[in-house]
Amino acid sequence: MRSVVVARHETRSRATSLLDRASSGLWGSQGGLFTHHAKGGHLRTTASATTKARASSRLLSTAAAAATRTLNDDALFAREAHRWDPQVPIERATTPPASWYTSPEVFRREAPLVFHRGWQQVGRTEQVKDAGQYFTGELLGEPYVVVRDQEGQLRAFFNVCRHHASKVATGEGCKSELVCPYHGWTYQLDGRLRVAPRVGGIKEFKPKENGLVPIQVIEWGRWIFINIDSSSDTDLHEELKPLEDVLESTQYRKLEYMCTRNYKVKSNWKVYVDNYLDGGYHVSVLHKTLNAQLDASQYSTQVHGRWSLQSCQGTNNQMEEQLLQERVGKQGAHYAFLYPNFMINRYGNLMDTNRAIPISVDETLVQFDYFMLKDGDTDQENQTKKEMVKALPESLEASIRISDGIQDEDAWVSEMVQQGLNSRAYDVGRYAPQVETAAYAFHQLLASDFRHGLQPSQ
Q1: Domain Rieske spans what residues (predicted)?
Q2: What is the tens place of the pLDDT at every residue in 125-157?
Q3: Range of the domain at 316
Q4: Pairing state of beta strands 154-158 and 142-148?
Q5: Which value, to the nearest 10 degrees, does the dihedral of the CA atoms of residues 388, 393, 396, 402 take?
Q6: Is the pTM of this model over 0.85?
Q7: Percent helix / strand / coil, the chain, rounded to 5
Q8: Which residues contact 33 (CB under 8 A, 6 or more apart)?
Q9: 426/342 Cα distance (integer angstroms)
Q10: Bridge-partner residues for 195, per DSSP?
C-alpha cells in the first residue's frame, strides 16, 4: 500500500514551527536564557554559552520528538483509515477495526473530517422563531450562535468576538444586538460590527472586515442545521426531500416540543449509532417489552446516501400498558438517521429526536428532544420551566418512562460493546447482511470522510 500523509498539513506545520522556534533562539530580546537584575545594583547574570547550547539542544530534541510523533500519528491514522475497504460488498465485508472506536488519534480527526464538514443538526426551529431570538452551542470545539435577525433572516456565526476571541453570547434568549461581555464590541444581528469602543489610534482597521464570521445555516423540517465548511454546496432540502415527504405524511408538524433529556453513555459515539442502525436486530433480545409490540417480519430499511430510514409495523397484541402502543402506533413507526449523528423517531402521537454528541473517545452525550400532540389548551409558553414540568401530560411522562427504560438498555449494551472493543480478543466482526445495511452505509460514509483527509505521499 502506498504510504499516505494527512492532506491538511497543519500537523507538519506545527512540528516545523517547533523546530524553527528552537533553532532561532526562543530566549527573548536580551539573547540570554536567564537574565535578572540584583536589587540596588546593575548586576546582570546570563547563562554561559555552554548552558545555552545545552538548553537549545534539549529544546531541539523535544521539537524533533514532537515532529516525529506528529508524523507517526499521521501514519497511524492513515493506516487505520485504510484498514476498512468500503468497496467490499456487505456479504463479504468485515466491520471497521476496533481502533475506529478506541483510538484517541482517530477520535481527534473526527472533528475536522466528520463534524466540521457537511450539515449538522444543532437546534429546533421554534428556538429562533422571532426576530432577535438566538441560541448558542459548540460543535466539537467550534462555538456557534444561531440568530433570527431583524429582517427575519436566519443567520449563524462563529461565537467568537473579532477583538480578543471572547464569546459574544451564551445560552439562549432574545437580543437586539450581540455585545461582547469582555470589551463591549457590539455586533448587529446580521453580524456587522457596529461599535468598537476606544480604538482611537488604531491603524489599518476596517470595521466592515471585522464582523462576526458567518456559518452556513438552514431550516429543514422542524430543525436547524449548520455547515462549518464554507466550501460545501450540498443542497440539504433536495437531498432530504423523500424523508420530508414521509414525515409530512405523519403530520409531524402538529406535534409540540415538550422537553429535553440528556444521557451520558460510556462508549464511543459510533457504538451508539451502530446500535441504532442495526435494522432492529437487537430489539428481540435487548428490548423484550418493546419487541412484543413489533412485527419483525414487517421491519424494513432504506438507505439513501447520507440518510437512512427504518420502518416497522405494530402487532395486534393486547398492551399491558396502553402507552406502550404509542411506541409503534397504528400507522407504524419510522426511525430516520441523518449522517453523522442525528436520529428522528416518529411513532403514534409522539416523536423524539436523538443526537449523539461525542465527549471523548469513550464517552457520548445523547440528547433527546420530545414532541407530542398537545393535550388541552394550556398555554405552556407562559409557564415557568418548573410549572411546565408539572403540567406535562400524563401520557408524555409515561412515554418518557418507557423511553428511559429503552435508553438504559441501549446504554448498558453500548458500554459493554466499548469494553469488548478495547479487548485484545477483538479486532473486526461481520455484518448480518439482511438487517445491518444502514450500519454498513454509515461505515462507508465514515470511510469516505476519513480518506478525505488523506492524499498520496509526494
Answers
A1: 119-226
A2: 999 999 999 999 999 999 999 999 999 999 999
A3: 236-442
A4: antiparallel
A5: 110
A6: no
A7: 35, 25, 40
A8: 27, 46, 47, 51, 52, 55
A9: 28
A10: 186
